[in-house]
Amino acid sequence: MAYSERTPPPRHAQTGSSLCPAVSLLLVLFTCNVRYAACGASNIVLILSDDQDVELGGMTPMKKTKLLIGDAGATFSNAYTATALGCPSRSSILTGNYPHNHAVRNDSLAGNCSSPLWQKGPETLALPVYLSKRKYRTFFAGKYLEQYGTKEAGEFAHVPPGWDLWHALVGDTKYYNYSLSVNGKEEKHGDSYEKDYFTDLILNRSLEFLDKRSLGQPFFMMLSPPAAHAPWTAAPQYQKEFSDVKAPRDGSFNKPGKDKHWLLRQPPNPMAGSSMDFLDDAYRKRWQTLLSVDDMVEKLVKKLEDLKELNNTYIFYASDNGFHAGQFSLPIDKRQLYEFDIRVPLMVRGPGIAPKQIVKAPVLNIDLAPTILDISGSDLPIMDGQSFLSQMAPSLRSGPSRSCFLVEHTGEGSPVPDPACPKLGCGLSHCLPNCVCEDSYNNTYACVRTLVGINLQYCEFSDNESFVEVYNLTSDLSQLVNIVKKVDPALLQAMNQHLIKLQSCAGSSCHDNGINGLYCVMGCIMFNSLPHRPH
Ligand SMILES: *[C@@H]1O[C@H](CO)[C@@H](O)[C@H](O)[C@H]1NC(C)=O
Ligand SMILES: *[C@@H]1O[C@H](CO)[C@@H](O)[C@H](O)[C@H]1NC(C)=O
Ligand SMILES: *[C@@H]1O[C@H](CO)[C@@H](O)[C@H](O)[C@H]1NC(C)=O
Ligand SMILES: *[C@@H]1O[C@H](CO)[C@@H](O)[C@H](O)[C@H]1NC(C)=O
Ligand SMILES: *[C@@H]1O[C@H](CO)[C@@H](O)[C@H](O)[C@H]1NC(C)=O
Ligand SMILES: *[C@@H]1O[C@H](CO)[C@@H](O)[C@H](O)[C@H]1NC(C)=O
Ligand SMILES: *[C@@H]1O[C@H](CO)[C@@H](O)[C@H](O)[C@H]1NC(C)=O
Ligand SMILES: *[C@@H]1O[C@H](CO)[C@@H](O)[C@H](O)[C@H]1NC(C)=O
């Protein structure tokens, strides 16, 4: 196991405490930035929504959040997840590492989601552990990992290390009728809106935490609401909203995936009318559930303002993965390599971040932990991700931006035919009515996504066709045309080499200033200089 080998040497010397006050003051004046607790360490809040896309208008219903976080700080127009599935992505957010290094492959225990091996390994080196060492008071409320609290995962007694206050959902997304682990003790909830609606409960617990905080101790809060994940149960006051809204019909909506991997070539293609009704209904309900998250953000910001903490608090708003609704005739889900599933919303406000910025530099979910640790002043452990503090607050930090990255997914299947559609045989999963399946064992892929210099995606599948998909995102934002047969084989070879490096990268070798950056640049030069074959 590689985890124990990754403890890095401290990167920053501490300021001496034995110096006389005048010298200390001078030191503080010269070095005063967010890194030093001497200047009053900043509080940090991470709000992580569930399955909220950005490509299909997922931020549209969140007007207050856009105003209070986005307009008050930075909105990232190229934020991605390294993997478009809940448990692997959440594990990446917590550890700052790609799935191939935290080894969480899917949402089940067999795929290491909250498994004993995860608990013994990666979880002991996750974000709250470092923040706790940095004397932050840490608070969690919401959905943690899909298998959290199940019998095999230690039930509700397991409180992951580093958390001082813990209110975590047992199992996968629910809005009512759920159990929580409250600091290791079970708390059961029914279905009264006033007492149990999960999004509101997360907010209420957060406000209580803020009221009881100890003055002078910085805090880290992670709030992880159930929206916009199924079963899409909106608060009663929002159940009639957006009655005329439908999923957008543009781009790849209901387009066939003829030149794509096996799963996307399967019928029905185009979708049946009943699938359209189903996805439109889901699309509306998703927006309705997000209205409660929008209220949460408003009330939280207001509370921080009342407590005079707002000007010393960083607030991150992000989602674990994107989502699709009809793209390439897939009714609803995630797990695909395309932009709609891997792009996520990301907005950050806080000290040193100028308002109304649109940051184009690509950032990843694995960058959240290093960025938060950078703000906290922690000696940065080596993670696959990189701090993006310099991208949003250049006055506080300078540093290179990321130009290309890895996207990886291990497809889920079933050893027995799905009862929803036995005729399709084994190897598929998440099958919906009309016999459309959203995943299969052979939907296992890895991609290089480059954004700076060239806007390209190169993906290889572990299936028995060794299928390859390549997209020119400059000319084809909707990824309608797989150009694998049109680009120069030398470019494919370079991308293949780059992908192999990224798939085995760890820590600094995943960074853009390491070997990855070299490949990024090489790929870019080749892409721009090679003659392209005529179409
Ligand atoms: C589960 O995680 C452990 C280490 O954390 C790893 O050794 C093991 O291979 C992982 N299992 C799978 C199926 O990836
Ligand atoms: C909650 O559980 C009760 C008892 O099983 C059930 O009657 C009720 O319909 C459930 N509510 C929701 C919203 O699922
Ligand atoms: C949250 O607090 C508000 C204000 O006190 C209250 O009206 C609401 O019922 C509470 N909701 C939950 C789920 O605790
Ligand atoms: C934040 O605002 C309060 C007054 O509202 C002020 O006392 C404090 O110095 C400010 N802190 C920062 C870091 O600007
Ligand atoms: C989840 O991942 C594990 C490890 O790769 C695998 O054994 C298991 O079959 C996967 N689950 C599904 C439903 O595919
Ligand atoms: C993908 O898996 C399905 C189900 O096992 C199988 O029928 C199909 O031949 C596979 N296709 C490829 C390209 O691997
Ligand atoms: C591809 O794999 C599937 C099982 O996943 C198998 O049924 C099929 O025969 C294989 N096809 C080829 C061409 O190897
Ligand atoms: C990608 O699209 C741009 C803009 O249309 C074009 O200039 C470039 O040649 C394309 N590259 C390939 C490989 O098709």
Structure, described:
- The protein is an alpha/beta fold and 535 residues long.
- The protein folds into 2 domains: 44-402, 3-Layer(aba) Sandwich (Alkaline Phosphatase, subunit A), CATH 3.40.720; 407-528, no CATH class.
- Helix content is 27%, strand content 17%.
- It contains 14 helices and 20 strands.
- It has helices spanning 21-31, 63-70, 86-95, 99-102, 116-120, 127-133, 193-196, 198-211, 273-306, 339-342, 368-376, 389-392, 489-503, 515-529, and strands at residues 43-49, 74-76, 79-80, 137-142, 165-169, 179-182, 185-188, 219-224, 313-319, 324-325, 332-333, 346-349, 357-359, 363-364, 404-409, 428-432, 436-440, 445-450, 456-461, 468-472.
- The chain has a 10-stranded mixed sheet with strand order 7-6-5-4-8-1-9-12-2-13, sandwiched between helices.
- Helix 13 runs antiparallel to helix 14.
- The longest helix is centred in the middle third of the chain and has 34 residues, at 273-306.
- 51% of the residues are buried.
- The model is unreliable at 1-38 and 530-535 (pLDDT under 50).
- The site of one 2-acetamido-2-deoxy-beta-D-glucopyranose has 8 residues, from loops.
